[in-house]
UniProtKB/TrEMBL annotation:
Pfam families: FliE
Gene Ontology biological-process entries: bacterial-type flagellum-dependent cell motility
Gene Ontology molecular function: any one: structural molecule activity
Compartments, record wording: Bacterial flagellum basal body
Lineage start: Bacteria, Pseudomonadati, Pseudomonadota, Gammaproteobacteria, Cellvibrionales
Sorted UniProt keywords: Bacterial flagellum, Cell projection, Cilium, Flagellum
Gene: fliE
Entry protein name: Flagellar hook-basal body complex protein FliE
Family designation: Belongs to the FliE family.
UniProt KW Mitochondrion keyword: no
Keyword tRNA-binding: no
NCBIfam families linked to this entry: fliE
Length: 111
């Protein structure tokens, strides 16, 4: 890099640092918060786990009703609910595994 290029980069870095100190630059975090709303990560995770749990409970209830001979429950409904619960559970397990891997990667980073 030539000397004028270095000087240009340094001046841009100083200008950005001054803007950041003055609060003129709006970070991406605030843009994400406005797009997502007030719900945090913990709330989203809690809601997802509850939805997975409710799908599993619904599938179990449908299975018990079918086994008991409830005339309002048909086999295809039981199978569909069971598959929905299975897919949701597998998604939850894969998401958990990826989160654990990401956490381990962050923890192993050199500072």
């Amino acid at each position: 890099m030539s000397t004028p290029g270095i000087q240009s980069a340094l001046s841009q870095m100083q200008a950005l640092a001054n803007q950041a100190q003055a609060g003129a630059i709006e970070g991406k975090g605030s843009q994400i918060n406005t797009a997502v709303g007030q719900e945090g990560f913990a709330d989203a995770l809690y809601g997802a786990v509850n939805r997975i749990n409710s799908l599993g409970q619904t599938a179990a209830a449908q299975t018990r009703a079918f086994q008991a001979g409830d005339p309002g429950v048909e086999l295809h409904q039981v199978m569909m609910d069971g598959q929905k619960a299975s897919v949701a559970f597998e998604l939850g397990v894969q998401l958990r595994n990826r989160l654990v891997t990401a956490y381990k990667d962050v923890m192993n980073m050199q500072v």
